[in-house]
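Example record for the data management plan.
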Amino acid sequence: MTTTRRYGQSPLWESNNRIQVTESAVADLRGFKSGTVNFKLALWDPRTNGMRYLKTLIFNLAAGLSEANRARLRRIRNRDVGDPITVRYDGEDVCMDYLEAVLELEFMSGAVPLDGLRVLEIGAGYGRTCHALMSNHDLVSYDIVDLDNALRLSRAYLGAVLDPGRFAKIRFHSVDEVDALPADQRFDLCVNVDSFAEMNAETVRAYLDLVAGRCRYLYVNNPVGKYLDPSLDGHAQGAEVVALALRTGPLLDVIDIHDNRAVEAQSRRFLAAYRPGDDWTCVADARAVPWTFYWQALYEKNTPEKGGREQTDARS
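Corresponding structural encoding:
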């Protein structure tokens, strides 16, 4: 006669106990929380659940948006171009890129009135910052400086997502054309999101000199330093790419990017590294959510009233 156990294990847990949560595996506490036992009991295995964790991050970030940022996000049309990884929140498809973009707009607008500005962006990627800014603010012009392949992508993408009137305000410049900009051309705001840290330090310095001579404000959002933790990505792109990454940018210190005190301490070096000149002041800075080791800062060129040298008139 077969007896059915009233509180017995399901077929699923019969399999789990045979393969992962075995008698021998639970007999040793060493390392069990970061191994297969706990990946069945409490966590999804991060080695194979990257998409699950990414979508959870996007979902929770969307849930925490303020009403003002929800309005900013809704004003950005055609975010579905390019088939982004999204979650559904309050009836809208939401992706990580534009969640970051509206948080950046919130930070910038807290320090600088963004309407009516002439903007220069150095390293625009596919153009999401430009898309977000132009969808939320009435800008006079938007100039993008980038490498040729990135320019091809951003020109095509922005042409697809913006209306003709806004797109007509954008000018695209290759890095080889920067020195050919008219000598009297000025910008109100320069933006750099996640590209200074991927340039040679000498190139960053040249761009900061350009900003110092032509701009009134600078917004920077970049890592505070480097990390060397193969558990994060298995160094999947290879040792050569890791070595290249470790020696680019102005901040080469290797830190624990998941130690808030280490990141906070390194942020002071970040603020010094990206200050365009002695006559510039950092008027706002903060960690750039959601990433643990990214920092953002807004610098302003001092006016004579603030005790600095005479600033360049951004509207001349």
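Summary line stored alongside the record: DSSP finds eleven helices and nine strands in the chain.
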